[in-house]
Every structure is written in structure tokens, then in C-alpha cells.
Specification:
Structural class: alpha+beta
Order of helices and strands: HHHEEHEHEEEEHHEEEE
Largest sheet: 5 strands, antiparallel
Number of strands: 11
Number of helices: 7
CATH architecture of the largest domain: 3-Layer(aba) Sandwich
CATH class of the largest domain: Alpha Beta
Length: 318
């Protein structure tokens, strides 16, 4: 019988860019390598979201009601053990590790795409010392209880409104400080000569101090912040762990292909890549979730489904 789904942290992102349980039927008990184990842990429960969406909604409404009744109490996102089965083997998924691996995969794909885009854009300017800028911004909270779910979204909306078409890509990662406060690392990829103001002085961030600096290491700099597992624990309820974006006006379909593909579940990635290499589809290929489970490759009309299905969900116990 299906139980309520995980409530902690990255539900909105899971709906937009879901992660599916892995193909192949291997479980941790079947002697999988450490790499395979991490791969499987990264394949989370979101394929089953349609099956449990009503229970999810009811539980979230209940928790939001609790938050409204205790405004000074910050509820932490919950951690869950998710049991999947393919009919022969069962596999245990830790929701926290699943979120972290997904974050690492998406941010790495972003950091891999930017250099390819950067090389072409620099050639357009014909001078090697004149090209797009990479700016790192750190956002902190003075009050550890000041965090709210939509503050980072509003900040990015304000930045995009300010920079307009001079903002070509961005990535941000959320971490928890030792004192219990959330803080964000934001990497902005902007057009040559673009001035990025100090967010707190420009009125873009009212919750604490900020820092702005040139990211000398380029897009790989953001990878430093996705490997710190201990700083991803205890995220506030409703907190997203990361976000990545590349503007379509500056990038070609080929430059965006790998980045886009990283948002697909692993078994779908494998099939799309296979069709792409065989010339059956091109870099503009589109796919979408099928109600009830599975994914449709729209260009060829093929529906793919994971062999794994949800057995139960229980609260994580260390």
C-alpha cells in the first residue's frame, strides 16, 4: 500500500526535472560497486509522484498549517527511506543522498556546458582578453530564522530584470552554516562589460550581507559547493538545494544537449543518447512525463518506463 511521499526540500524541482529509479535490476545486496550504489541512490522516487500526489498534497498542507501556527519555528525538511522493487529485487533509496546526487549531476552538466559556449562566444568578440564574465555572489542571512522558500527565487527574478539580456546563464547552490543559517552561492555568467552590483547595497538582498567577486576558476568553481554533504543536511522545509539555467539565445542546440539530457532519468538518458548517436533524433529532441508513469520521446512517439515501482516509504532513522 502506498504511503505519503517525502515532503522535505526539493519537491518543486523533482516535478520539473524528475529522477527515476535505475534500470538493470541491481540492488545493493546484489554486490553492486560503490559507484553503482551512488548511481542507484541518485535515482529517486519521483517517477511515482503521480501515484501519490494526493497524499503528498494533503501532507504538505498539514505541515504548512503547522508552520503558520508556529511562525518562529523553522521545520527542517524530512528525510525518507524509499523502497523500490522490480519484482525480483528490492532497492533502498535514501532521499537525502538522492537529492544530493541529482544536484551534483545537474550542476556538473551546467559547468561542462559553459566552457563550450564560452569558446564560441569569445571567438565572436575576436579578442581573447574580452569575453563573458563569471561572477560569484554569496548571499547570507543575519537572522538564522529569516529564511523563506521564495526569497532566492525573488532574488534571481530581480537579477534577471536588472541585467536583462546581459545575463546568459546562472547556477546557485544552497548550504547550511555551522550556526544553523542558510546561505547561497550564486554564479552568474554575464555579457562582456556587464556590471553586477553588490546585492545588499543595490537592494536586491535585504536579509544579510553579500559578497561579489570574479570567479577566476570559471564555472567549475560552483562544483566546490555541491560535494559538501554535511552542509546539505538539515535544510529548511521547502528549500531547493540548487538551480541551473542557460539562456537559449546564446547557446546552440548542440551546446545545450548534454545539459538538457542531465535532467532526464538515467534510463531515459541512455535511450535518448543511443538514438542521438544513431541519427534517429537530433539535439532538439523533446521528452515529457506521461501521466501514470513513464516518459514520452515526442519526436518519435516512443514511451519508456522504469522497471522499478514504489513499495513503501518510511521516515529515515539513523
Amino acid at each position: 500500500m502506498l504511503q505519503s511521499p517525502p515532503i522535505g526540500g526539493d519537491e518543486e524541482a523533482a516535478q520539473k526535472e524528475p529522477v527515476i529509479a535505475p534500470p538493470g535490476g541491481r540492488s545493493a545486496s546484489a554486490g553492486a560497486s560503490e559507484q553503482d550504489e551512488k548511481y542507484q541512490q541518485g535515482c529517486a522516487f519521483s517517477w511515482h509522484f503521480d501515484q501519490v500526489s494526493r497524499a503528498y498534497h494533503e501532507e504538505r498542507v498539514r505541515i504548512e498549517h503547522e508552520m503558520e501556527s508556529t511562525p518562529k519555528v523553522r521545520l527542517k525538511g524530512r528525510r525518507w527511506n524509499i523502497t523500490l522493487s522490480n519484482g525480483e529485487d528490492e532497492h533502498q533509496v535514501d532521499s537525502q543522498i538522492s537529492r544530493l546526487v541529482r544536484c551534483q549531476r545537474r550542476v556538473k552538466a551546467w559547468s561542462d556546458a559553459i566552457p563550450r559556449l564560452n569558446r564560441r562566444l569569445r571567438r565572436l568578440y575576436k579578442k581573447k582578453n574580452i569575453g563573458p564574465r563569471m561572477v560569484m555572489v554569496t548571499l547570507t542571512y543575519e537572522d538564522i530564522d529569516a529564511w523563506e522558500p521564495n526569497q532566492i527565487r525573488q532574488f534571481m527574478q530581480d537579477v534577471r530584470k536588472l541585467l536583462k539580456d546581459k545575463l546568459w546563464a546562472y547556477a546557485w547552490v544552497l548550504e547550511m552554516q555551522e550556526r544553523g543559517a542558510a546561505h547561497y552561492h550564486v554564479l552568474l555568467y554575464v555579457a562582456p562589460g556587464t556590471d553586477v552590483p553588490e546585492p545588499d547595497k543595490a537592494g536586491l538582498w535585504q536579509y544579510g550581507c553579500t559578497r561579489r567577486e570574479t570567479a577566476e576558476k570559471g564555472p567549475k568553481y560552483i562544483l566546490t559547493y555541491v560535494g559538501k554533504e554535511h552542509q546539505k543536511e538539515g535544510l529548511p522545509l521547502g528549500a531547493r538545494m540548487f538551480a541551473v539555467w542557460i539562456g537559449k539565445k546564446q547557446a546552440t542546440a548542440e551546446e545545450l544537449f548534454g545539459f538538457r539530457l542531465s535532467s532526464a532519468p538515467p534510463y531515459l538518458q541512455k535511450k535518448i543518447l543511443e538514438y542521438y548517436e544513431e541519427g534517429i533524433i537530433n539535439a532538439n529532441v523533446r521528452w515529457e512525463r506521461v501521466f501514470g508513469g513513464g516518459w514520452l520521446i515526442k519526436d518519435i512517439g516512443e514511451i519508456l518506463q522504469s522497471e522499478w515501482y514504489l513499495v513503501r516509504i518510511s521516515e529515515y532513522i539513523e
